[in-house]
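Hi support team,

I've been running sequence recovery on a batch of backbones for a student project. Most finish fine, but this one hangs at about 90% for roughly twenty minutes before it completes. I'm not sure whether the input is malformed or the queue is just slow. I've pasted the C-alpha cells below so you can try to reproduce it. Let me know if you need the job ID as well.

Thanks,
M.K.
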C-alpha cells in the first residue's frame, strides 16, 4: 500500500520526506522489521520504540511513524510525526487490513468480571441464530467455527485487525470481543468501529498497571466516550459505576439489572447447582447457569441480542440451551458425593460473588472448602483481601500458589496470611504446592460439601520462575475423584 493511504485516518503533525512511497508491511517491534516496512515507534511500559528507530532503518524500514522526529534525518526515509504512536498504529492497522470492523457488526464487552462469559455466550447465541460470527476472548478466538489460540485478552492492533479481516473473509456478520482496560489505555482498539458496548462491573484489578482505581475506571470509561451516535451502550445499573460509563457517551444508552428498574430486568425465581429459573423482562426461562453474577451476565447477553434486532422469544429459547464457559463456575460431581467447582475468580469481588453463590445454594446443608492463591508480580495490595474473603465464608480456606511467575511462592502466601487475624488463621491452611492443596481439599470433603478451586479457571498452566508448566485444575480434580 501507499504510505499516505495507510495514514488516511491519522492526524499528521509533521511530515519529512515522501509519503507517496510503497510500503509492504507495518511493524512496531523493531526486531521484526524487514526491507520495505513502515516502523511505528510506540512507547510501552518497558521500552520506548523511539530508541530503536536506527535499528529499524538499518533493517530496511522505508518510513518511520513517531512522536518525536530524530535529530539525524536519513534523506531516503519518510518521517511522520503524530501525537500518539499507539493510536496511529491502531488506525494504520485498520486501514492496512481494509477497515474490517466497518464490514461487520462489532460489539465490545468491558468490565472487571464477566467479559469472557458475555462475549462467548453472544458468539454462541448468534451462531445458533444462524449468523456467521467471530469471537475475540481470553480463552480462545474464533473465526466462525475455526479456533485461533488467544494470547492476550485483547491482541495487538495488527493481530486484532488481521483476525477481524479473517472474519470478514469467512463471511462473518457479527464479531464479539472482550475489551480490556489495558487495550483501551494502550490504544489497541484505536481505529475500530464498534456498533455496541457492554459494561459488566468494576472492582479492584490491574492496580499494578493503572496505579489507581480512578485511572482504571477512566480507561473503562474511555471506551464508552469514544462510541459513535449510531452505537448502543448497555450498562449494568447494579454496579455503582455503571451509569458513570454513560455520562459522556454519544451512543444510545440502555441498562440491565437484577435489582432495580432497567431496560432489561432479570429476577432469579429458583436456583440450585444444576441451574436457575429466571424471569427476564416478564418471561420465564430455565438456564443451566448458577449464581447472581451469571444471571447478570445473561441479562447483558439478552439485552445486547435484542438491541441487535433479534427476536426476544427466540433469544430466550437459545439462552435456555447455552452452557457455562470453560473454567467459569465449572461444576464437577465427585463419586463420593461432594461437588467441585473450578472458577477463574482472581479478584476479591469475583471471589465474594462465587463464595456467596455457593453458600446461598448450600444454605447450611454442607461445608465450603476454598482453594485460592494470588499471582506473582501483580497487584500485591489485593493479596490480604483475597485471603480474608476466602476465609470469611468458607468452612476451611487453603491458600496456595497461582502463577507465582518470578516471585517466591511462599512470599506471596506470606502477603496473603498477613491479612488474617488469629481466628481467621485457624480456619486456613497454607500449602505451597497447588496439586497438594487441591488433593487436601478433596480429601477433607464429605458428601454434600463443595470444594471451590478459584483463580485459574480455564488456564492449563502454572508460570514458575517465568517458565510455563502444564497444570489444569480440572484435571487435578478428576484425579482426586
Amino acid at each position: 500500500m501507499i504510505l499516505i493511504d495507510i495514514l488516511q485516518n491519522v492526524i499528521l503533525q509533521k511530515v519529512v520526506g515522501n509519503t507517496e512511497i510503497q510500503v509492504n508491511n507495518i511493524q512496531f517491534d523493531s526486531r521484526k522489521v524487514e526491507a520495505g516496512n513502515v516502523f511505528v515507534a510506540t512507547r510501552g511500559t518497558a521500552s520506548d520504540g523511539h530508541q530503536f528507530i536506527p535499528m529499524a532503518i538499518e533493517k530496511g524500514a522505508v518510513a518511520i511513524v513517531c512522536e518525536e522526529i530524530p535529530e539525524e534525518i536519513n534523506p531516503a526515509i519518510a518521517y511522520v510525526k503524530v501525537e500518539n504512536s499507539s493510536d496511529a498504529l491502531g488506525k494504520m492497522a485498520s486501514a492496512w487490513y481494509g477497515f474490517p470492523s466497518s464490514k461487520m457488526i462489532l460489539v465490545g464487552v468491558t468490565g472487571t468480571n464477566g467479559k469472557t462469559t458475555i462475549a462467548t455466550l453472544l458468539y454462541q447465541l448468534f451462531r445458533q441464530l444462524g449468523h456467521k460470527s467471530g469471537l475475540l476472548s481470553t480463552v480462545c478466538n474464533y473465526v466462525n467455527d475455526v479456533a485461533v489460540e488467544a494470547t492476550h485478552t485483547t491482541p495487538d492492533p495488527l493481530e486484532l485487525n488481521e483476525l477481524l479481516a479473517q472474519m470478514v473473509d469467512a463471511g462473518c456478520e457479527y464479531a464479539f470481543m472482550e475489551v480490556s482496560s489495558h487495550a483501551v489505555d494502550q490504544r489497541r482498539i484505536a481505529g475500530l468501529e464498534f456498533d455496541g458496548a457492554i459494561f459488566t462491573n468494576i472492582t479492584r484489578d490491574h492496580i499494578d498497571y493503572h496505579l489507581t482505581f480512578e485511572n482504571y475506571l477512566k480507561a473503562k470509561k474511555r471506551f464508552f466516550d469514544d462510541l459513535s451516535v449510531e452505537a448502543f451502550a448497555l450498562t449494568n445499573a447494579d454496579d455503582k459505576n455503571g451509569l458513570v460509563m454513560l455520562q459522556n457517551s454519544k451512543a444510545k444508552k440502555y441498562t440491565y439489572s437484577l435489582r432495580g428498574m432497567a431496560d432489561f430486568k432479570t429476577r432469579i425465581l429458583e436456583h440450585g447447582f444444576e441451574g436457575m429459573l429466571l424471569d427476564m423482562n416478564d418471561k420465564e426461562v430455565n438456564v443451566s447457569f448458577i449464581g447472581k453474577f451469571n444471571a447478570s451476565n445473561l441479562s447483558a447477553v439478552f439485552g445486547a441480542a435484542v438491541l441487535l434486532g433479534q427476536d426476544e422469544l427466540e433469544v430466550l429459547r437459545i439462552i435456555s440451551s447455552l452452557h457455562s464457559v470453560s473454567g467459569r463456575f465449572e461444576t464437577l460431581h465427585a463419586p463420593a458425593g461432594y461437588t467441585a467447582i473450578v472458577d477463574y475468580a482472581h479478584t476479591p469481588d469475583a471471589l465474594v460473588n462465587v463464595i456467596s453463590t455457593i453458600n446461598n445454594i448450600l444454605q447450611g446443608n454442607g461445608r465450603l472448602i476454598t482453594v485460592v492463591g494470588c499471582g506473582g508480580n501483580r497487584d500485591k495490595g489485593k493479596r490480604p483481601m483475597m485471603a480474608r474473603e476466602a476465609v470469611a465464608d468458607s468452612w476451611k480456606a487453603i491458600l496456595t500458589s497461582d502463577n507465582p511467575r518470578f516471585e517466591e511462592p511462599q512470599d506471596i502466601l506470606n502477603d496473603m496470611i498477613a491479612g488474617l487475624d488469629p481466628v481467621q488463621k485457624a480456619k486456613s491452611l497454607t500449602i505451597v504446592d497447588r496439586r497438594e492443596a487441591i488433593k487436601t481439599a478433596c480429601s477433607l470433603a464429605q458428601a454434600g460439601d463443595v470444594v471451590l478451586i478459584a483463580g485459574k479457571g480455564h488456564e492449563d498452566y502454572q508460570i514458575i520462575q517465568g517458565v510455563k508448566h502444564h497444570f489444569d485444575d480440572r484435571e487435578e480434580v478428576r484425579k482426586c475423584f
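--
Follow-up from support: It reproduced on our side and the slowdown came from queue contention, not your input. The first strand starts at residue 14 and ends at 16. No action needed from you.
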